[in-house]
Each structure stands twice: as C-alpha cells, then as structure tokens.
C-alpha cells in the first residue's frame, strides 16, 4: 500500500515537469507547421513567404502576368509567368513551332531547374545548336548573343517559344516632362550634351542652321538621311533654333542607352528586356490562332487604318514627302493614339525604345518610329516584331525609352565563408584598374604553418580542428538574372 502511494505521488509530480519539458518542442513543431513551408534552402536559411502581387501597384505602370478566373494576380507559389512565341511576324514557321514545342514539349521555367543544373541549362538556351558552317564545312558555334534578323522588320527569326516572368511596364514612353524632372533633380548631363551634337533627320533641320562650323551636317554612314547637328539634344530636338516647349508630353529623344538606364535607376526601375517588351506589345496575341502582324490586325497595306493607331511616316516618299496623315511629321504626344488590349500606348511607331541587354556596340531597340513604313519598302516595317540594334552611345531624334520593374519577391538568404579565410589576402584596386594584394593579419596563424607546427598540431588535435574551422556568415542571396528577362 505504501509503495502504491509513493508511485502515484511521484507519477503526479513528474507529469507536470515532463509536460513543461515537452512544451517547447511541441510549440516549435506548431510554428513550423504554420509557416509557409517550414523548409530551409540548401544552406539552412529559412525561406520567407512571397509577397502578394495583388498588393503591388505603381502609378503609370501596368502589370503583365497570369491572373486567375476572378481576375486576381497569381502568386509566386505557382508558375505565374507565361509563354508565347517570340520573334518576327513575317515568318509563318511559328505554326509548326507551336505544334512541336508549345503543345508537346512544355518549356521548364528557369527557376524550376535545380541550381546544380541551372548553369548548364542556361548555356544550352543561350547558344542553342551549332548550325553555322564555315567555308571548310566545319560546324562552329554561333557567337554569344547572335540573332538572325528578318530583312524587312529586323525581327528575330525563326520565332521561338519563350517564358517570361511577371513584370510591371510603363504604359507610355518617358516624356520630356518626366525627363526634365530627373535632370533638374540630379543635374544630369546627357551624352548628346557632352558630345555637343546628335543625329536629326535631314529634312527636319532648319536650313538657317547650316554652316561650316556645325559638323557640316555630316551624315550617319549607316543611315544616310540622318545628319549630325551641333547643339541638338533633348531640349532642342532639331538643333539650336528648336525647342521641346509645347512638346512636354512627347517622348524624350536624343537619349543614349546609358541616359535611359540612369533615368530608370533614379525612379527605382530598370529598362525592359525585349522579351518582356514584346509580350506587352503583343497584348495577348501570343499563339498561332491570334498572332497578328500589327497591333491593330493584319491589314498590311491600309495606311488609313494604320494612321489611326500609330505614328508612322505615311504613304509619301521617304524622306521628302510626309503629308502628316496621322497628324504629325515627327514625334506625337504619348497618348494620342488608342492603347493596345493591355493598356500600353505607342508600342508601335513614334519612337524606337531602348531595351535591356545586348552589347555596347549593338544595343537593342524595339517598336519602330515615325520614319518607318508598313511593308518595309523604306526603313523598317513597323510590325510587332520590329527590331534593330545601334551603338549604345547613339542619340537621335527617334529613339526614346520606357521603364520596367519586377514584382517584389521574398528575401532569400544563404551562408557563405568569409573571403579572407578563403583567399588569405585582400585585393585593392586603384583608379587605374591595378590590383594590389594585402595580407590579412592573423590568416597565416590559422592556415599556414611549417613542419614544426605540424608536429605540434599532431599532438594537439583539438587545436588543429579549431584552426582549420572556417566561419560562415548569413547574407542575402542575390537574385539571379533569368534569361527570360533579356
């Protein structure tokens, strides 16, 4: 009886204690269960929830991405990007591509590829297959960034299926008014101002500005009708006797690729990738069943219809005849023509627009401008696939830009080793690009020793382990630039 009483007493005494000891573990499990996923990445850093794209709005920008049946934006917990046929509209091979690739061989988004396979997958996507043959008959790889262009609109051929992540894009090109705010706030000097001249269409130059001291209106070797005019820049689009006044709502021109990128950075945005840009320009015309030649349809010879949708040259002879059928001989206000199905203005005509990516000597511009035609009989055909490349420092009266922005994503972390423990020295670079290395104090004590030290360490294994231990630190994982943004 006494033993039964003692056993009962001790069981009652131990039960609350054991329950208290179990509480932290149970609470920890509950916390992980309530978390978004409770998973850690390969470095052991906790993953946070993705922000809801529906909570993100920016004035003057439009969201391009997948929506559910109720019209709400899909979150990053699913594949909320979209796929479409990217490339020129002049090539009918997109129908075969649709059948063979889009339907039967779904394209894996880059972010679904395991990290250890990602670099190889990106390499294969960049370089594609080895199809270029030399005179000796050998197959050689195409250079990085090589794009085959259609002779009429300069668009990429053959068309191919691409995947694009969601993004925000300005509904209009950046205007003179917007760019003026940037210049006044930062005292920014454009490259046209630094060089002292820019390219203007020869028929729009005031004859009284011609003199022996203004570069003699030297023509662009790649565009004979564009001449260099001293003093032409964004405030003086045609030269010293012109002004942007009364054109505040026209697209800003005479801006280089760097000028455009600096403005986008100032407003917290970036230049769009051309795949993003074309996705916005096609506005849902993504497959063979609804893919059209122009933003307004397939009427390729109807100038009257085109004049109601885009600022182009018109049926007159270029560069001398422009009857301003669309109401303007040069640039037009950014909201003068109706928007496309997604709400974007001037995706065709008015001004070419700088794109992200490309090479410095061959930066990409998209969309055509006011000097282009419908059928490519002069300059480019202003189709949805219209594309060209120019030097990054080029400034002309028909190139502008608009900005893009990626939706917010969760912050991901990982652990890295300290650089000084990896390399043992610190590299310092001076203004001339010369790199000098400085030894890190104490590093030799941890990682370098002579034979005598080795014998001592053998006798003291714990000290040896401590000296070889490498410290880690938790840092924000830099988001990779996916190829579908270019």
TrEMBL record:
Keywords assigned: Signal
Region ranges (Disordered): 441-486
Signal peptide: 1-22
Name of the molecule in the record: Sulfatase-modifying factor
Keyword Cell membrane carried by entry: no
Record domain Sulfatase-modifying factor enzyme-like: where: 155-405
InterPro entries reported in the protein's UniProt record: Sulfatase_Mod_Factor_Kinase, SUMF_dom
PANTHER family assigned to the protein according to its UniProt record, in alphabetical order: FORMYLGLYCINE-GENERATING ENZYME (PTHR23150:SF19), SULFATASE MODIFYING FACTOR 1, 2 (PTHR23150)
Keyword Nucleotidyltransferase: no
Biased composition annotated in UniProt, kind: Acidic residues: 451-461
Domain of life: Eukaryota
UniProt GO MF annotations: formylglycine-generating oxidase activity
């Amino acid at each position: 009886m006494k033993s039964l009483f003692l056993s009962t007493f001790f069981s009652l005494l131990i039960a609350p204690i054991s329950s208290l000891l179990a509480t932290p573990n149970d609470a920890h499990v509950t916390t992980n269960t309530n978390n978004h996923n409770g998973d850690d990445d390969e470095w052991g850093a906790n993953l946070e929830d993705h922000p809801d794209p529906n909570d993100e709005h920016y004035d003057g920008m439009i969201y391009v991405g997948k929506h559910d049946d109720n019209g709400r934006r899909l979150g990053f917990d699913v594949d909320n990007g979209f796929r479409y046929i990217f490339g020129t509209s002049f090539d009918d091979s997109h129908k075969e591509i649709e059948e063979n690739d889009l339907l039967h061989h779904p394209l894996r988004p880059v972010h679904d590829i395991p990290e250890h396979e990602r670099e190889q997958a990106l390499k294969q996507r960049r370089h594609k297959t080895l199809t270029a043959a030399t005179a000796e008959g050998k197959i050689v790889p195409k250079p990085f960034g090589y794009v085959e262009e259609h002779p009429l609109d300069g668009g990429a051929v053959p068309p191919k299926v691409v995947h694009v992540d969601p993004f925000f894009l300005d509904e209009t090109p950046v205007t003179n008014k917007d760019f003026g705010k940037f210049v006044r706030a930062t005292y920014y000097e454009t490259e046209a101002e630094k060089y002292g001249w820019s390219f203007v269409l020869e028929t729009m130059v005031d004859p009284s500005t011609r003199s022996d001291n203004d570069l003699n209106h030297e023509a662009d070797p790649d565009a004979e009708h564009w001449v260099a005019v001293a003093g032409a820049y964004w405030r003086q689009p045609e030269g010293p006797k012109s002004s942007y006044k009364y054109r505040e709502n026209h697209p800003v021109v005479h801006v280089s690729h760097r000028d455009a990128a600096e403005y986008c950075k100032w407003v917290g945005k970036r230049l769009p990738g051309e795949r993003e840009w074309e996705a916005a320009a096609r506005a849902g015309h993504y497959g063979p069943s609804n893919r059209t030649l122009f933003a307004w349809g397939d009427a390729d010879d109807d100038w009257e219809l085109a004049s109601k949708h885009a600022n182009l040259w018109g049926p007159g002879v270029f560069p001398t005849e422009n009857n301003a059928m669309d109401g303007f001989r040069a640039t037009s206000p950014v909201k003068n023509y109706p928007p496309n199905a997604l709400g974007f203005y001037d995706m065709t005509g008015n001004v070419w627009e700088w794109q992200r990516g490309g090479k410095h000597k061959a930066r990409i511009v998209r969309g055509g401008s006011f000097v282009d035609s419908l059928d490519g009989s002069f300059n480019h055909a202003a189709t949805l696939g219209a594309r060209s490349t120019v030097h990054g420092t080029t400034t002309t009266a028909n190139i502008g830009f608009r900005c893009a922005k990626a939706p917010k994503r969760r912050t991901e972390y990982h652990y890295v080793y300290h650089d000084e423990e990896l390399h043992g020295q610190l590299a310092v670079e001076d203004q001339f690009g010369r790199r000098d290395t400085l030894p890190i104090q104490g590093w030799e004590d941890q990682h370098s020793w002579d034979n005598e030290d080795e014998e001592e360490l053998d006798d003291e294994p714990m000290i040896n382990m401590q000296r070889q231990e490498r410290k880690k630190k938790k840092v924000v994982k830099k988001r990779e630039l996916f190829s579908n943004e270019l």
